[in-house]
Design a protein that fits this description.
alpha/beta; Rossmann fold; seven-stranded mixed β-sheet; 10 helices; 38% helix; 14% strand; globular
């Protein structure tokens, strides 16, 4: 089976490892080209260096950074606009340039809530990515950003509502978390065989471990808790055509894909298996 090239687009350093570290490692292990674009923080900062180490662990190449400032940390990109305050057209253009340069078959980003925490930078990354994936294939948009390239699929990293109680049990009662109805999930990926790699990538974000953010929570968990929290990744395929195809199948539950695919598949439980 040919494994499609995969580009992740996430808001902050560590989001790639937490949200899609298993899928990135799995695709890379199968010989696919993988990469990550990060919307905030700048080269030369500590978190950029940590990102480079995490991507090395995941096999996802060198950091690709849009260079905007984190909404809550102005010093993350000195002299640059906050991601939320920057002109939307500028953000889309910068991401289109990366899409056309990398030419991925599959793109992965945050869901419309911005994942479990609902961080505004995550939400905005979702919006910018959806626009950029469409714009990248249109030759009269951003001609200075390279030759047009249309990714075949866009997947949104998310969490089904049914796993929230287990999440709260593992990490303790924290802020409100955002999740989607289980029937919206179109791909559930078993990344257990790549869990050690994924955890190592999360822990490479040492400054986040030290300040007690989610990598710090994971650092303090026993192995069973890490497995429960991180060994499955859930995605929504952002495609009206695939949603129609799924409804026509009429069977409940997400597909257990071995990899994220470029075609719309049936929404049912199929053997993905541990390899």
């Amino acid at each position: 089976m040919s494994v499609p090239s995969l580009l992740g687009v996430f808001a902050h350093p560590d989001d790639e490892s937490l949200s899609a570290g298993g899928v990135l490692a799995r695709h890379a292990a199968a010989g696919a080209r993988t990469g990550v674009v990060t919307a905030t923080w700048a080269a030369g900062t500590q978190r950029a260096a940590e990102l480079a180490e995490a991507l090395r662990i995941l096999g996802a190449g060198e950091p690709r950074m849009l260079g905007f400032a984190d909404a809550r940390v102005p010093q993350s990109a000195p002299g640059s606009a906050s991601f939320l305050a920057a002109p939307l057209d500028d953000a889309v253009r910068r991401l289109v340039a990366h899409l056309r340069d990398f030419r991925p078959e599959v793109v992965v980003t945050h869901d419309a809530y911005g994942g479990l925490p609902g961080h505004p930078d995550h939400v905005h990354t979702h919006r910018v990515t959806v626009l950029a994936v469409q714009a990248a294939g249109l030759d009269q948009l951003y001609p200075e950003a390279g030759e047009p390239w249309q990714p075949s699929a866009l997947y949104l990293a998310t969490h089904p509502r049914s796993v929230v109680p287990a999440f709260r049990e593992v990490v303790g009662v924290r802020k409100a978390v955002y999740s989607v109805p289980d029937e919206q999930i179109t791909a559930a990926i078993d990344v257990g065989p790549w869990l050690e790699q994924k955890v190592a990538a999360v822990l490479a974000h040492r400054s986040e471990v030290e300040r007690g953010a989610m990598p710090g929570v994971i650092a303090g968990l026993p192995s069973a808790g890490r497995e429960r929290l991180l060994s499955t990744e859930w995605y929504i395929r952002h495609s009206p055509a695939s949603a129609v195809a799924a409804q026509e199948q009429g069977s409940p539950g997400p597909a257990q894909w071995t990899f994220l695919t470029t075609h719309a598949g049936p929404r049912h439980r199929a053997e993905g298996g541990r390899q």
